[in-house]
Amino acid sequence: MKNLDIEIINRCKSFQSKYDKVLKYILKYDRIAVFRHIRPDYDALGCQMAMVNWLKDNFKNKEIIYTGDDHVVLTPKCFPYMMQVNDDWFDKPFLAIVLDTSNSNRISDERYKNADVIVKIDHHPEVDKYGKVQIVDETMSAAGELLANMLIKFEDYVITKETATYLYKAIAGDSNRFLYAEVNAHTFAVSELLVQKGIDIVQIYKDMYSEDLTSLEFTKWVLSHYHITPHGVAYYVLEKDDLKRLNLQPERGKDCLYLFDHFDSIHIWMSVSWDEPKGVYRVSLRSDGVSVERVAANYAGGGHTQASGAKLKSLDNLPKLISELDNLLK
Fold first, then answer.
1. Among 23, 127, 323, 329, which residue has the least CB neighbours within 10 Å?
2. Please, which residues have CB within 8 angstroms of residue 156's CB and are 6 or more apart in sequence?
């Protein structure tokens, strides 16, 4: 590791023994399944597919699968559709690698429970210790950043351009293109190494952020329906009829949050979207540095300082949530 940035070297040292265990299990098992959390985002899908590609590139005789729910936009726009795997595949011994998932009830496929060994790699505050090997660092901006650090440490194995592209998408997506507080010198050191693998950043951002006219109509709607509290909480609420009129899935309710991230008088911004199948309102919270994760935790949610999620059973609870967020800014 003599030619690596000191930030990468120091992080590798802190996880050295755990990295060695992960590699030991990868070498031991001929069948490996890669999982991540339900309702995936850039980080979940990015590090899942990076892990899959790295395994396939370096262990061509092993059987590698990946499962979970597809995203309504990101697959196949940025990531491939998930594999459809029969139950009997999980009856034989296999290694499970679970990425970007703090608690086991959010893992995208319950069949991970059949694994002989479970490896957990995550950057969220630890909620559930479900892995035999646990690599958790909540100072990382993304699980993709943590995974990249580990793969860089495995110097005898290759990181291809495709793998590096998935890792970059994970990091850029979860850090809001390097704007969040968790971004630090290590984030940029890892990203620099990924760029050196030949990734096309212009094409990556085009893949991630190109939109159709549905998005334009949604933007127009948000600009006509947002609210701002006296202390700087901006929010909009998408009811069932709104989603139908705009031809949106609930997962896309947060897509217009970026509209509020550059105004001096707005410090917290939030989307609230009705989720018919779940019977709840999905809440997505963002901030310019104010910690919103504790408030999110009061509403069946959590996440990071500047980016968290929550749930509301009824809009009757929305005024209380807004008040709590407003109080953070007083």
1. 323
2. none
